[in-house]
Amino acid sequence: MDRMTDFLRGRRRSELTVEEKAALENVISEVVVVPPRHVIARRGDRLHNSTLLIDGFICRYMDARDGYRQLVSYQIPGDFVDLHGYPTRHIDHDIASLTEARIALVPHERLDAVMATMPHLAKLLWFSTILDAALHREWIFRIGRLDALGRVAHFLCETNLRMACVGRAVDGRFALPLTQQDLGEACGLTSVHVNRTLRRLREEGVAQVARGYAHVQDFARLARIGEFDPDYLYLEDGPWHKV
Amino acid sequence: MDRMTDFLRGRRRSELTVEEKAALENVISEVVVVPPRHVIARRGDRLHNSTLLIDGFICRYMDARDGYRQLVSYQIPGDFVDLHGYPTRHIDHDIASLTEARIALVPHERLDAVMATMPHLAKLLWFSTILDAALHREWIFRIGRLDALGRVAHFLCETNLRMACVGRAVDGRFALPLTQQDLGEACGLTSVHVNRTLRRLREEGVAQVARGYAHVQDFARLARIGEFDPDYLYLEDGPWHKV
DNA sequence: CGGAGCGTTGAAAGCCCTCAACGTTTGTGG
DNA sequence: CCACAAACGTTGAGGGCTTTCAACGCTCCG
Question: Which residues, other chains included, contact A148 with Cβ-Cβ below 8 Å and sequence gap of 6+?
């Protein structure tokens, strides 16, 4: 079925035996399709499954009192959406689809079996939640220390590499189905200022974002603007290390 | 020796058998003392041990180009400092002590043994790294969506509960050995503005921070200002739920 | 073809930063 | 125990980046 093909694809420390690959396919109980802009889970929900994203975009966010929200993460194909809900049995933020999304359900009992019998595979699952935490830290840095131009640039660098990693970016072009409002919620900016910032990047020939797609024309310059270092993505050695 | 006494203390999902407690004590190979304001590990280092903080304060941070830094986390007694370095074997940010700190070293081979033979305990270790990620998400929210007053208030709420959890806060009073510069680096503010913000909290009788100590006088109001919901700390039912 | 959502642009206001000066505390050595 | 220096804390004034508010154009889909 190959529904797990993109899991940890392109990342270091992701060597899997044949048995482990088979075991991974078998943790999936079913695959469901979620419509775009649909709330998948809410803060406080109890979980008995975790979900792996096969296709589409999903975001995780927290609401503020004033009605605005803050994205804390987004998931692309190959990402577990809420594997952290396995040890906690509970989620502490909201989850919603951005596009139509195909997600695989993974019952927690099956993960218990993996923990009990396949420690190396269990460690890889743990690793994938730790990648998430590494991304969170980088987001703290991005929002806490960079100005608007840097934040958007950093966001685009990260997304470009993550998409390339799972074979969904070619020559700096990739799907980016986020509105300027969404981008603002990810970067701690208003949609108006995101608009002005994207215009600057466009006018300087660094990157273009329009109609659900992004085109990074000058990755090196974008990375400089965003003080971006791909270290935290734990990428395999490959063409991305040249940037 | 009881060096692990504070690990996951006061958190849900932290029920341990006698054997597991003993195993936890045995993962420690040695205890070392680190002087204040001392760099413990640097971005890019390879790790063969993880460290548990027994006493003192430690912070984790990332440097920006302009010389400023962004704290991404700080650890108090009972926290693992870099357990995430076990699955990754590598750290992606800098770690330094704030005060003198007693830390326990945990060789990764011993964690391999736990993974292979004690899946329930392994799941608790995983859980503790997931608590870290939950804190990261809350920091993203804090910095991305709150103004200066809210950020500092949220920070104080979090610290108060975490310190209370390990028996180090009484009646809203606890050690806070961070300078205003440090607080700024944690909240994405300058030390000057932290100073003005603390003054406002002091003048309104909500909280006082001075000389390495904090005193939260009105937790409920502080929580309202900081839009603080303790859900993400996974606290046991207890007096903290009254706030 | 019409409407709703999204994107774009301008003007003005606000929050936080920068710069600068001075007061206070802490720690060290005489 | 005192003197001194360095680090930390405090306060004011001015400037800049981002937000807010408002209007209008564009795109996409029913």
Answer: A187, A189, A193, A194, A196, A197
- Strand C positions within 7 A of protein Cβ atoms: 5-11, 15-20, 25-26
In angstroms, the CA B73 to CA B38 distance is: 16
Is the CB of residue A232 less than 8 Å away from at least one CB of chain B? yes
Query: Using CA atoms, how far apart are residues B54 and B4, in angstroms rounded to an integer?
Result: 8
Average pLDDT in chain A: 94
Give dist(CA A82, CA B83) in Å, integer: 20
Cβ contact B123–A115 (<8 Å): yes
Strand order in the sheet with A94-97: A39-41, A94-97, A58-63, A69-75
Cross-strand pairs, B60: B73, B95
Quote the CA–CA distance of B47 and B104 in Å, as a whole number: 14
pLDDT bracket for residue A103 (50, 70, 90) = very high
Name the residue type at position A180: Q
Instruction: Report the distance separating Cα B131 and Cα B142, nearest Å.
Output: 16
| DSSP, res B214 | E
**B122·A122 Cβ contact <8 A:** yes
B113 SS3 class: helix
Report B:150-179 residues touching A (Cβ under 8 A): none
Tokens of A61: 């966010």
CB of B20 closer than 8 Å to CB of B114: no
* Average pLDDT value for residue range A33-62: 95
3-state secondary structure of A209: strand
Taking residues A222-240, what's their average pLDDT?
Answer: 88
Residues of chain B scoring pLDDT < 70 = 1, 238-243
**Beta strands A101-107 and A169-170, pairing class:** unpaired
Which is higher by pLDDT, B67 or A42? Answer: A42
pLDDT band, very low/low/confident/very high, at A238 (cuts 50, 70, 90): low
pLDDT in tens, A161-205: 999 999 999 999 999 999 999 999 999 999 999 999 999 999 999
Residues near B21 by Cβ (< 8 Å), separated by ≥ 6?
B4
Whole-number Å distance between alpha carbons of B208 and B174: 11
Residue A243 has a pLDDT of: 45
Q: Do B137 and A73 touch (CB under 8 A)?
A: yes
The β-bridge relationship of strands B173-175 and B58-63 is unpaired
Predicted model pTM: 0.96
Q: Single out the residue of B56, B52, B54, B106 nearest to residue B80, CA to CA.
A: B52
CA nearest B231: which of B171, B146, B161, B142? B161
